[in-house]
């Protein structure tokens, strides 16, 4: 099987949002596949991360801190931005096309042997575990695909479980309350492991505390952001953990909310080692963090920012950084496509504060039609609204309209950002 054949195999196994939900929620299928491979998900200790927002950033930060500590780190994330191999990485480098095809071929053979037909997400998850065992990862940092309890990744036995925060998302699978969602995410907590809780709502913390666990550390009680100031190209942080206060830590990413992710990541790694980290490890680890597609500046003159925030809380954080940190004073142009309620996302993105809104269709079967996104913008009071179905064409129109002092924000869906990012980087000469 070559790389193209591997992609065809996965396409043939695609289910809703490629998150492993086919019928009723279960980990039985991937459990059987992993058992047939000798349970590679147990080949190394695991830090398992879930949450409504920030889990991808937190996984990246945890991985960089572990790498700076000298460990070989297997990192599994979803969805990907531009190429599927981004989901499976060793020490920050994606799996090669050849190795990816080899791992998917192994899963296809197991399907024939066991009679287990995995979903797209289950197949990639099993392939990731197999590859991490093959390359002898010292630790695996695993991002949940959907919620937690019945997610395909939840065949691991986490040494540390991390829950970033809880918001109303994926309510078609859990809900209708935040407590219901918290209960699903709490499913990654293990009886003999630690749990790091970034959520601060006392009612939700009680939900997590009811799951059997060895220890629990909670934001603002056991760890916290002491100081969080804007710096050139990122943030300057003071972070408190159960053992130490780390001062003047530079984090080269945008957004005050990233400090919360950093504090949870630092607490998780300290908990994993059961010891404080050397100051140079913290500085090296956080200094190497890169978050493509997450409030990423991809051009200047005009300023061009892309952000894959896909739900209202994430959109609210994104537009907050755009207006509060960058403070654009000239024309503000929003390019937006989404997979969810257009009115909800348009409101969260404060579209009526932009001079121009260009609506597009996110390039996925679940993308809301550009016309519907545009109509939502008009209902919100936006005066100048353009409807351009193709995201790349929408961004090209934004660039055509923008002067050197204007600011473009592309937001609403990781699928939109993944589609346009290469074009925008080429435009900026990067």
In the CATH scheme, the class of the largest domain would be Alpha Beta
List the domain count as a whole number.
Answer: 2
Strand order in the sheet with the most strands:
4-3-2-5-1-6-7-8
Q: Find the CATH topology of the largest domain.
A: UDP-N-acetylmuramoyl-L-alanine:D-glutamate ligase
Secondary-structure class: alpha/beta
The CA-CA distance between the termini, in Å, is 34 Å
The shape, in one word, is globular
Please, how many helices? Answer: 14
What average pLDDT do the residues reach?
Answer: 94
Q: What is the architecture of the largest domain at the second tier of CATH?
A: 3-Layer(aba) Sandwich
Number of strands: 17
Radius of gyration: 21 Å
For the largest beta-sheet, the strand count, sense and barrel status come to: 8 strands, mixed
Beta strand %: 15-25%
Uncertain stretches: 16-22
Explain what this protein looks like in three dimensions.
This protein is 38% helix and 18% strand. It has 14 helices and 17 strands. The protein has helices at 3-11, 28-36, 55-68, 97-114, 120-134, 178-185, 202-209, 258-273, 279-287, 312-326, 342-348, 370-379, 391-401, 414-427; strands at residues 46-50, 73-76, 88-90, 93-94, 139-143, 160-163, 194-197, 215-218, 224-231, 234-240, 245-251, 296-299, 303-306, 332-336, 356-359, 385-387, 407-411. The strands form 3 sheets. The protein has an 8-stranded mixed beta sheet, sandwiched between helices. Helix 2 (28-36) runs parallel beside helix 5, helix 6 (178-185) packs parallel to helix 7 and helix 13 (391-401) packs across helix 14 (414-427). 53% of the residues are buried.
